[in-house]
Amino acid sequence: MGIKVVITGVTGMVGEGVLHECLLDPRVESVLAISRKPTEMSHPKLREVYVKDFSNLGAIKAEFAGFDACYFCLGTTSIGKDEADYTKITYDIAVGFGQAFKDANPNSLFCFVSGAGTDPSLTNKQMWARVKGKTENDLTAIFGEKFYAIRPGYIQPTKGLKRTLKPYTYVAWLYPVFKLFFPSAVCTLREIGMAMISVSLSGYTKHILEVRDIINAANNS
User: Fold this and answer.
1) Series of mean pLDDT values for 10-residue runs along the chain (221 residues)
2) Can you tell me the distance from the alpha carbon of 220 to that of 19, in angstroms, rounded to the nearest whole number?
3) Residue 137 CB burial class (10 angstroms; 0-12, 13-18, ≥19)
4) Are 13 and 157 in contact (CB under 8 A)?
5) Among 164, 221, 162, which residue's Cα sits nearest to residue 189?
6) Among 98, 69, 25, CA closest to 199
7) pLDDT at 221
8) Region for residue 201 given its phi and psi (left: phi exceeds 0; alpha: psi -120 to 50; beta: otherwise)
9) Which pLDDT does position 178 carry in this prediction?
């Protein structure tokens, strides 16, 4: 029997890509996608639950039990947001969801899609880096050794998926150049999904996975 996983953010680019890899991978037995709207995907392993407000999970908490891992891919850009708004979306929702998932699955694993440059010391001048750093810190406090932060830089999208952000479609052809000159800053969306599955099954030597770690974990899966 394979692992049972919960994925959030499935109607975004990263979440869709991670879901895609989980549905393809025979080591993943089932997937529960939790989102505000349908994924428009159909697969025997996939079940979907919709929630209007991620800050109020009371109506769906009963759905959380019986899972091995959560891949938290829900996120937003900091552009155009002040720190209070960005914190509410990035920190409050992730930590609240993480605690609810932990309560339902005490031995579960939690992968959080963070970002290259995240600052857990909370001293960075970049607001988003501090907020994501605090999120990593508090999720670590909840999950301990079962927490993994995934910190991608540039992400090469998976061909054929619907949720690829427009800026990525414009520069995807440059990926070989990025890979050649900035190997520690670029990875593929497939590698992110494979890395999450890998740490769920086998763990990893680090709990903060930078780009090279994401690639390494994916290749060892």
Assistant:
1) 95 97 98 95 96 92 95 92 93 96 96 97 96 98 98 96 91 95 97 98 97 97 78
2) 19
3) middle
4) yes
5) 164
6) 69
7) 78
8) alpha
9) 94
pTM: 0.96
Residues near 200 by Cβ (< 8 Å), separated by ≥ 6?
A: 3, 5, 68, 69, 109, 111
**N-to-C CA span, the chain:** 17
d(CA 43, CA 138): 34
Q: Which residues pair with 3 in a beta bridge?
A: 28
CA 193/CA 25 separation, integer angstroms: 10
Closest CA to 72 of 38, 43, 52, 100: 100
User: What is the rounded radius of gyration, in angstroms, for the C-alpha atoms of the chain?
Assistant: 16
Q: Alpha-carbon distance 187 to 120, whole Å?
A: 22
Phi, psi of 63, deg, nearest 5? -80, -15
Q: Which tokens go with 78?
A: 């900091």
